[in-house]
Structures are given as C-alpha cells and as structure tokens.
Amino acid sequence: MLKTAFRSLGIMFLMWAACAPVVVIPGVHFLLIIVVPLVPFVAAYRTAKKAKNLNDSVGVQGLTLGLIVALIVLLAIIILLVSGSQLGVYEFEGRAKALVWIIVFIAPLYSGSMSALGFMYGALKSKKLESD
To answer: pTM value?
Structure first.
C-alpha cells in the first residue's frame, strides 16, 4: 500500500509541477481550475487500476491510501512553510497567516479523501473488469 501511495503522490506532484509554469498564460487559468483539483482522484484511480493483490476490502485499502497521502501532503506543506519562513522567503502577516492555516487544514483533507475515492473506484472497476 505504501508503494501505491508513493506512486500516486509522484504522479500528483509531477502534474502539479507541470501546471505551475503554465499559470502565467492567461487562457490556461480556467483549465487549471479543473485540472489541479482532479489530480489526486485521477492519480489514485490510475494506480489502483494497475495495482495487484487487491484481495482485502477495497474500502479499507482506499482509506489507508487516503490517510497515507494526506499525512505525506501535510508533512510536505509543513516542511515547505517552516523552511521558507526560516530562510526568509515567506513573510506571513494578518490575512495571509489565516489563509496559510486554512491551506494547512484543507489541502491534506482534500487530497487524502479524493485519493481514497479514486483508489476505491479504480479498484472496484478493475475487479469488475477481471470478473467479466
């Protein structure tokens, strides 16, 4: 499960990194509003379709994957924020500090839940295709 979670996270971070330079193009903003939130679901869906040994409960495996993804995203956000503030890259005051706290709480929850849903849907779909 850990290998699947890291594979899914690798796809997520690569897609987000590929979207970052494109933000400066004016017409692409609307496309990124659709693409960036769907990345956790699609990455987990694709890795579930390729995963093997799905003998256990799909729900338990999906929730485990979602928890692992959420913890790693939370850890990555905390490391980036702490290292950036220590190096003087980030200066958070007032509303920016509140926005950062919202991101710290919402981003892991969203990426973990969407990864869990994507994994469960992909695993159930692959089991259905195997049975047919």
So the answer is: 0.80
